[in-house]
Structure prediction request, 228 residues.
Amino acid sequence: AAGVIQSPRHLIKEKRETATLKCYPIPRHDTVYWYQQGPGQDPQFLISFYEKMQSDKGSIPDRFSAQQFSDYHSELNMSSLELGDSALYFCASSSRPLASSYNEQFFGPGTRLTVL
Amino acid sequence: TQLLEQSPQFLSIQEGENLTVYCNSSSVFSSLQWYRQEPGEGPVLLVTVVTGGEVKKLKRLTFQFGDARKDSSLHITAAQPGDTGLYLCAGASGGSNYKLTFGKGTLLTVNP
Prediction:
């Protein structure tokens, strides 16, 4: 079965540079979530999109922005990178259920960002 | 802010032993999901529990959702080295958004 695709898998940037992370959700999934996981930490929710509209916002720095496109893929744009931005960035996707009160999020393999 | 307390944080056992991981919160969740994560990889969904008191079994893994939907447990029977990994519980608040709040995780090591 098709899974969530993230690119690139690894990214190395210098301080103050910009980075763009891409996420391709599972086919027919309409919701995308971004999470940040620091070393030894649990994933922290950044932002989510449903049907190309931002649906929720978590602890995402103002230097970061994201959007979901018409084909449902999403991009996380990170500017003025700082050393503390080094982390694993996960994208998850789900299909918003019509009748039930929950959904299941499926995670991609992540992008490891290293800021030097 | 909803918090999930997960325990124990670290667990090292011998192959064949049983273990239980706990996930507790003061908040009610509409659903709770358990994930397993390998180093440098994305969390892999194991199970979703929705109904208070629900019990789900996945081979040697048994998941339970508390009656009040505030806590959950994962029990592994006869652990194997292949069970080694980081186990994360995550609660969803439902409503108009479904962001997950994760516990800190339990790092399980099963020694042969």
Observations:
- The longest strand of chain A covers residues 87-94.
